[in-house]
Specification:
By secondary structure, the chain is of the alpha/beta class. It has one domain: Rossmann fold, CATH 3.40.50.2300. The protein is 38% helix and 23% strand. The chain contains five helices and seven strands, in the order E-H-E-H-E-E-E-H-E-H-E-H. Helix 2 (42-52) runs parallel beside helix 3 (68-78).
Length: 133
Amino acid sequence: MCEPAEVPLRCLIVDDSAYFLEAAADLLQREGLTVAGVASAGAEALRQAAELRPDVVLVDIMLGHESGIELARQLAAANPGGRPAIILISTHAEADFADLIQKAPVAGFVPKPELSGSAIRRLIRNPPLASGL
């Protein structure tokens, strides 16, 4: 029997920190996700999302000089139908961006310190507003 948690999710991680990209990729792979790619900028993320067709894209809200929320909008516009699922991540608290997260075309938000395979799977199964926003 195949449980949803056993289905390997292919993921693209978008963050401007090379250290975070490496640490997150290692963590998520140990927790059963397949990290199909990593990107450090919006254009690179859009290109990889089109080429790799991941199930989920993790996008840092503060992506260097770019807006991760704007990137989420571009990803959603380029991929109608809700795939890939887009999850915003940040070192900042969810409350700092609550209005923007709520209005963004995303499955939800995960604080970077709480990033895990189970957190991603939970958001994929139970999209927005589960956090009480």
